[in-house]
Design brief:
The protein is α/β, with parallel strands linked by helices. The protein is 50% helix and 16% strand. The chain has six helices and seven strands; from the N terminus they run H-E-H-E-H-H-E-E-E-H-E-E-H. The chain has a five-stranded mixed beta sheet, sandwiched between helices. It has a two-stranded antiparallel sheet with strand order 4-5.
C-alpha cells in the first residue's frame, strides 16, 4: 500500500511547491510596502523614533512605480538598518481609499496626493513627523544609476531636519 501512495504524495508535494512558487512570482513589489492609512499615528511614531517619513506616490499600472518599489523601496523597507532612519509609506494617486492626515482629519489617498501637488508618478517625498516637506521631491525615475543616491540624500536631509541638526 505504501508503494502505491508514495508516488502520489511526491506528486502532491511537487504540485503544492509549484503553486507556492507561482504565487510568489506574481506578487507585486507593493507587497513589501505599507499603504498609508493613518499619518497622524505615523507622525507620532516618527517623532518617537526621531526619523522622517518617506512617502512614495504611485499610480496603478505605472511600470516605473513598480520598479522604484521593487529595486529600492521594498529592500529598504525590509532592511532593519532603515527602521532606525525612516518610515516608508505608499500613497496611490487618485485613490478614494480613506486616509487620516497628519492633523487627524479624514481624507483620501487621492486628496492627500493632490494637496501635495503630485502630478507625476512615481514621486517620492520625505516629510517631517508633522507632515512638512523635508526637502525636494524626487519626481520620476530619474537616472537609475543614481536613484539610490537620491533616495539616500533625501532620507539623510529628512533625518537632519527631523532631529533639528
Amino acid at each position: 500500500m505504501r508503494r502505491l501512495i508514495a508516488p502520489w504524495m511526491l506528486l502532491l508535494k511537487l504540485a503544492i511547491l509549484a503553486c507556492g512558487l507561482a504565487l510568489t512570482g506574481t506578487a507585486s513589489a507593493a507587497d513589501g510596502l505599507v499603504q498609508a492609512s493613518n499619518f497622524k499615528a505615523d507622525g507620532k511614531l516618527a517623532m518617537q523614533r526621531r526619523v522622517p517619513i518617506l512617502v512614495v506616490f504611485t499610480s496603478p499600472g505605472c511600470s516605473y512605480c513598480e520598479r522604484v518599489k521593487r529595486e529600492y523601496l521594498v529592500p529598504m523597507h525590509k532592511d532593519p538598518a532603515y527602521l532606525k532612519r525612516v518610515i516608508i509609506r505608499e500613497v496611490t494617486v487618485g485613490a478614494t481609499t480613506p486616509l487620516t492626515g497628519f492633523d487627524g482629519s479624514a481624507t483620501t489617498e487621492g486628496a492627500f496626493a493632490a494637496s501635495h501637488k503630485i502630478f507625476l508618478t512615481p514621486t517620492v517625498k520625505v516629510l517631517t513627523p508633522q507632515g512638512g516637506d523635508a526637502g525636494e521631491a524626487i519626481v520620476g525615475m530619474l537616472t537609475p544609476d543614481y536613484y539610490f543616491g537620491y533616495l539616500e540624500a533625501a532620507i539623510d536631509e529628512g533625518g537632519r531636519i527631523t532631529r533639528g541638526k
